[in-house]
Amino acid sequence: MGQGIIIPGNANTFHQVEFSILAFRPKLGEVVEGEVVELVDFGAFCRLGPLDGLVHVSQICDDYISYEQVGNRFIGKETGKILEVNNEVRTKVIAVSLGTGRSGKLGLTMRQKFLGKLDWIEADVEEEYASIEAKKLKASEEEEVSEK
User: Given Cys at both, which of 17, 63, 92, 97 links 76, Cβ 3.0 to 4.6 Å?
Assistant: First the structure.
């Protein structure tokens, strides 16, 4: 550590230091991954590194969602999508109001395609791939018909 500075009347010693810091400052529209740490009737709290953000119940998915208190989970009425504590999720930052320490607020959404629980995203990707393949097949069939 080397020699420091002693100031008379102060019990501390002061030393010059050099350090690196890894910081997380969320920005509006940023897509981030985290883990669901708590579910309450109005939404899900997700841990994104040093911060927790809230995904309001209306922003969990594009379906009517109900909170099941006994199982401590959210269930989609038509899609059957289930969100539970410890699920890995991909979210988008829609509101940032950071104060000092952990007192800030972070609003998140998972309603858009390719956001939400990682299993949901995988299903979205497969569906999109199937859709692209179907369009290619239809285009090639139409091309064959027009050539005849």
Answer: 63
DSSP type of residue 101:
T
Domain ranges of the chain: 25-133
What is the pTM (predicted TM-score) of this model? 0.73
User: What are the angstrom distances between the C-alpha of 143 and each of 35, 129, 132, 135?
Assistant: 47, 21, 16, 12
Torsion of CA 114, 117, 123, 124, to 10 degrees: -10
CATH superfamily of 25-133: Nucleic acid-binding proteins (2.40.50.140)
Please state the rounded mean pLDDT for residues 106-123: 91
> Coil, strand, or helix at residue 50?
coil
